[in-house]
Amino acid sequence: MDVVVLAEDLEVDNLVELSTVYGNVAIRLTRVERRVNGIKFTGLNHQGTQYCFGMKYGQSATRLDM
User: Fold this and answer.
1) 51 burial class (0-12, 13-18, 19+ CB within 10 angstroms)?
2) What is the C-alpha radius of gyration for the chain, rounded to an integer number of angstroms?
3) 51 touches 45 (CB < 8 A)
4) Is a pLDDT exceeding 80 seen at residue 64?
5) How many CB atoms lie within 10 A of CB 38?
6) Cβ atoms 65, 18 nearer than 8 A
7) Confidence class of residue 66 from pLDDT cuts 50, 70 and 90?
8) How far is the C-alpha of 55 from the C-alpha of 35, rounded, in Å?
9) Please, what is the Cα angle at 28 between 24 and 34, to 5 degrees?
10) In three state form, how does the secondary structure of the chain look?
11) Distances 40 to 1, 12, 66 between C-alpha atoms, Å
12) What confidence tens digit (pLDDT) does each residue in 10-49 have?
């Protein structure tokens, strides 16, 4: 089941869906870094590829509950 949450509610080990130019990717978060202007996330997909991305506070995100 997919749950839409705010970016600040995401935590390490959450599985989130990230939209890229190549399609949607499921990312397991390994690091969540809160900053002044937003949040920086680092995670891995199921193949072990690392992704880094940022979101603004209050922005909605899709958390995958498996």
Assistant:
1) middle
2) 11
3) yes
4) yes
5) 16
6) no
7) low
8) 10
9) 100
10) CEEEEEHHHCCCCCEEEEEECCEEEEEEEEEEEECCCCEEEEEECCCCCEEEEEECCCCEEEEECC
11) 24, 12, 23
12) 999 999 999 889 899 999 999 999 999 999 999 999 999 9
Structure tokens belonging to residue 30: 């390994």
Identity at 41, one-letter amino acid code = F
Amino acid at 3: V
- Residue 36's identity, in one-letter code, is V
Task: Tokens for 31, please give them.
Answer: 């690091």
Look at the alpha carbons of 16, 62, 2, 8 in this order and tell me if their dihedral is positive or negative: positive
